[in-house]
């Protein structure tokens, strides 16, 4: 277990984190500190606790919006996958129909060739 000291609102806080997560936790602390500074500039000195709550609510709102957008993108991706799957299925069905059509045409051509080649009244010599 690692420890990081982060500074928020001019106060130092010692925080535990998983090994290797020190930089990430420090970055999150800097983001919260910057958000509190922005709110302090916008609203003045209204108290550390109130600024902290406002920063937390602002970050929670951004997280909620990001989750909403992610959900919308997941739905869109799911719809795209379904459309691609349906198109692939239609393509396979079309390929099968074309293959059957080509086979049927080849069989007709072979039958016509045999009929023309063996018909004494055709007037066409085959050989």
Q: Could you describe the 3D structure shown?
A:
The protein has 127 residues and is mostly helical. Helix content is 73%, strand content 11%. The protein contains 2 helices and 2 strands; from the N terminus they run E-E-H-H. It has a two-stranded antiparallel sheet with strand order 1-2. Helix 1 crosses helix 2. The mean pLDDT is 92.
Key descriptive features of the protein:
127 residues, mainly alpha, two-stranded antiparallel sheet, 73% helix
Per-chain topology:
Blueprint (H helix, E strand, L loop, with lengths): L1 E7 L2 E7 L4 H22 L4 H71 L9
Antiparallel strand pairs: 1-2
Summarize, please:
The chain is mainly alpha-helical and 127 residues long.
Roughly how many Å is the radius of gyration?
Answer: 37 Å
Mean of all residue-level pLDDT scores:
92
Shape: rod-shaped
Q: How many angstroms does the end-to-end distance come to?
A: 93 Å
DSSP strand (E) fraction? 5-15%
**Total number of helices:** 2
Biggest beta-sheet profile: 2 strands, antiparallel
Low-confidence stretches: none
Helix content: over 70%
Instruction: Name the strands of the widest sheet in spatial order.
Output: 1-2
The arrangement of helices and strands along the chain is EEHH
User: What is the number of E strands?
Assistant: 2
- Give the class from helix and strand content and strand pairing: mainly alpha
């Amino acid at each position: 277990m690692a420890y990081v000291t982060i500074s928020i609102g001019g106060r130092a806080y010692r925080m535990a984190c998983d090994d290797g997560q020190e930089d990430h936790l420090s970055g999150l602390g800097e983001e919260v500190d910057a958000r509190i500074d922005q709110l302090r500039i916008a609203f003045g000195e209204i108290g550390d606790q109130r600024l902290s709550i406002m920063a937390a609510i602002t970050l929670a709102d951004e997280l909620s919006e990001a989750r909403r957008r992610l959900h919308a993108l997941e739905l869109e991706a799911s719809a795209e996958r379904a459309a691609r799957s349906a198109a692939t299925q239609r393509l396979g069905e079309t390929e099968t129909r074309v293959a059957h059509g080509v086979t049927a045409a080849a069989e007709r051509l072979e039958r016509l060739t045999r009929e023309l080649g063996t018909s004494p009244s055709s007037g066409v010599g085959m050989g």
